Amino acid sequence: MGRKVTLATCSLNQWALDFEGNLTRILKSIEIAKQRGAKYRLGPELEICGYGCADHFYESDTLLHCFQVLKSLLESPLTQDIICDVGMPVMHHNVRYNCRVIFLNKKILLIRPKMLLANYGNNREFRWFSPWSRPRYVEEYFLPRMIQDLTGQTTVPFGDGVLSTKDTCLGSEICAELWNPRSPHVDMGLDGIEIFTNSSASYHELRKADHRVNLIKSATTKSGGIYLFANQKGCDGDRLYYDGCAMIAINGDIVARGAQFSLEDVEVVTATLDLEDVRSYRGERYSKVTKHHKPYTRIKTDFSLSDCDDRCLPTHQPVEWIFHTPEEEISLGPACWLWDYLRRSGQAGFLLPLSGGVDSSSTACIVYSMCVQICQAVKDGNSQVLEDVQRVVNDSSYRPEDPRELCGHLFTTCYMASENSSEDTCNRAKDLAAQIGSVYIHTNTHTHHLNINIDMAVKGMLGIFSMVTGKWPQFRAKGGSARENLALQNVQARIRMILAYLFAQLCLWAQGKPGGLLVLGSANVDESLTGYFTKYDCSSADINPIGGVSKMDLKCFLQYCVKSFQLTALIGILDAPPTAELEPLTDGKVVQTDEADMGMTYSELSVIGRLRKISKCGPYSMFCKLIHSWKETFSPSQVATKVKHFFRMYSINRHKMTTVTPSYHAENYSPDDNRFDLRPFLYNTQWAWQFRCIDNEVSKFAKKQPY
């Protein structure tokens, strides 16, 4: 009868400018799609060059190499008898477009440019591309000579067209077009297009996956039809992790889905669906719909997605999408990102200064989660992961089976004690390191690994200062000023950074092993927001897996690790008050705490951070919102004090964000200065006008109070 179609979409772990590797992964996905009987294969956005090329998109080399890869795809026997839909930049009339190139049997059928560009959050597509601004308009594109010689075509259709096969019609959306209030699938559905495709480079944020799924379900609920979603996966060279979730939906139901987090470089999702289900669904709803727009240009191709005899072919049924909890997302996403970074960086493992606090323990647990995923992938037969592990540990016979044992190969932790460190934090760090299996370098004289006394380095630095100035600074607890107190804390923190990099470079050398280690950071998003860290201290690392995660989420994550990984050492870490341990102890006990230093709790900071970034609040607007949401806890004057205190801290310390360690992007209120949160770093920290507006409102509230 010829009405059932088998379609394929995929998630690919592409790497910016890795044309060789990207080509291999594209061909692998096409091969798998054909093996499963698919007649159409959709890939991620800009999959040929990788989405994260950034200013490399300006280079003519990038365009040239994309066409060279396209030529290889056209030539490959694997691409025969299947419609292939791939993503690459194309220059047309000297204007650069983000395009889909759709081809079949060595003939390009259509080049469809992106019409609605993403220019928010981490996306800056307007910097490199122009949107196609002519809806339903198609013109000729002159192919490069290398493609002409292969296909025998001089020109091909370029623009907002759709593909018409002998049995159905397909139309493209590209990533952000799904999220736009004027999504093309609405008009395409009204014009009879039955299959919508979306190639994306959609990155992970905590609690975001359900939005993506709901948009696709909504698109096919209101328009009817089949919807294919392809996405990039993994770290393609920067702070983002693209989190897969390739899926296929029909008439409001998800019928096939891929993983959100995995170590598979190529994941193909296929489904067999009945076109008559789309037609029946629409027949009831579209009977009185009037079309007001001109029809789409249909590019006709002599090819069918269905077979004549398909009566016995079963169709896919709806599946339930169970979303990860935020704690699971923190465990999985940053761990996959770390693995991609490690295997592609050519380094031999990680080094982490482990303080015994929530933040560094969270980083350690993410590395342990990475090891859990690696062992599981090897157990499941992932040959690429096994090959990568063997290369990283420099042992071609090694086969990881136990995460704790693998941690001992890949992960080194160190506790850098000073005279201000307590035995409690020392023991907590030691216990956690033992449970996860990391190589543990303990800088306290009570240990059996390396005996490093950080106090000697601190005194040496202060001795140089004293020799030049004739002064010896003192802590506040010993009569020193605030400036002396802060400087003494900073010198400890910065010496720790120097030692971390020294051991990262030479640890393996000292053991007679090749390679170096990547230094991991552990400053959370809230500390970055307020600048509650020392510039060029242990927060200065190569990469930071928790830099986009809030303190409150990290605490929940550690509770999850206690249950999921049986890391009972975390219980004591969670019970202890967060502290930097940079000021003198009192009777051997810590008196310095983070929340006291910051003047607000981490819970309050999380609320303020979301108002600043997500709600776009300045000091005055933030005050006006918080006097209502915090009215049960604080008076208007107390709210004003907290808002002013935050903005003073934030503006004084914003300069630190210009040098902060590259961090995994996980939170939509991240203060990352690279491209997500663009702000000045030299402020007038008095905020005179803004704070005066707040004071005026406080005065009005005071006058309303009964005597």
TrEMBL record:
Residues 5-275 form the CN hydrolase domain. GO terms for biological process: 'de novo' NAD+ biosynthetic process from L-tryptophan. Pathway: Cofactor biosynthesis; NAD(+) biosynthesis; NAD(+) from deamido-NAD(+) (L-Gln route): step 1/1. It is an enzyme of class 6 (ligase). The keyword Signal does not apply. It catalyses: deamido-NAD(+) + L-glutamine + ATP + H2O = L-glutamate + AMP + diphosphate + NAD(+) + H(+). GO terms for molecular function: ATP binding; glutaminase activity; NAD+ synthase (glutamine-hydrolyzing) activity. One of its GO terms (cellular component) is cytosol. Keywords: ATP-binding, Ligase, NAD, Nucleotide-binding. CDD domains: GAT_Gln-NAD-synth, NAD_synthase. Transmembrane segments: none annotated. InterPro entries: C-N_Hydrolase (IPR003010), C-N_Hydrolase_sf (IPR036526), Gln-dep_NAD_synthase (IPR014445), NAD/GMP_synthase (IPR022310), NAD_synthase (IPR003694), Rossmann-like_a/b/a_fold (IPR014729). Its EC number is 6.3.5.1. In the C-terminal section; belongs to the NAD synthetase family. Homohexamer. NCBIfam families: nadE. This is Glutamine-dependent NAD(+) synthetase. It comes from Cyprinus carpio (Common carp). The lineage of its organism: Eukaryota, Metazoa, Chordata, Craniata, Vertebrata.
